[in-house]
Amino acid sequence: MSWFKITLIRSGIGMTERQNNVLKALGLRHRMKTVYHPVSPDTAGMIMKVKELLTVSEVDKPLTQAEIHAKRQPPKGYYVEKQGVVREDIEGS
Amino acid sequence: MLTPPRKSPWRLSSGQKYRHRQRLRRVDRTVDVVYKALAKRGMTAAAVERWKSEMPTEAEMKPRDKYTMFDPKQRSYRKGVHKLPKWTRMSQRVNPPGF
Fold it and tell me: How would you write chain B as a 3-class SS string?
């Protein structure tokens, strides 16, 4: 099963009631929000109603909201060494 | 409450035209992705079929249609596409029959 990955990149402010209702139905509440919907004629029709505001791609598996959030995090810049591990790259350890 | 129409130059700048082309292409890409995804699973959607049959892509459009649109009130029957309210979030590609 494949999915549409849909991201709202232009705001729906000032667009018609009907288009804003479509955005609501898709679950797109604010800009840069990404949602996944199964590939079906219903979804396609909804995308076509607001196609000027979206970017769409086809993916095999939807990501959960937590996974999307984790992907957006920057690297921490450090790592925690484990206790009792001898590092061979440091001389004398 | 009505907001008065804003002043705007009669033609688009080259940068505006460039960004307008990018937007047209993005819509083309979106429709294409949806069309291909449905076709892969042997499905169609009326809205996609209609767009594909009626609307030219960015590459197929003439500059006249890209940057200007029909307006019955103008002497030349054309005005800049940026005069259309919300023009950066609208699709305006074809002319009425005969124009």
Answer: CCCCCCCCCCCCCHHHHHHHHHHHHHHHHHHHHHHHHHHHCCCCCHHHHHHHHHCCCCCCCCHHHHHEEECCCCCCCEEEHHHCCCHHHCCCCCCCCCC
- Cβ of A51 within 8 Å of Cβ of B30? The answer is yes
Give the nearest partner residue to A53 out of B38, B51, B89, using CB atoms: B89
Full domain range(s) for residue B41: 14-89
Mean pLDDT of A56-74: 93
Which chain A residues are closer than 8 Å to B38 by Cβ?
Answer: 39, 41, 44
Q: Is B97 a member of any domain?
A: no
Asked whether residue B3 is domain-assigned, the answer is no
pLDDT tens digits along B36-78? 999 999 999 999 999 999 999 999 999 999 999 999 999 999 9
Q: How many domains does chain B have?
A: 1
Domain-located, residue B65: yes
Write the CATH number of the domain with boundaries A3-72: 3.30.1390.20
Residue of B nearest to A11 (CA): B89
Interface pTM, i.e. ipTM: 0.87
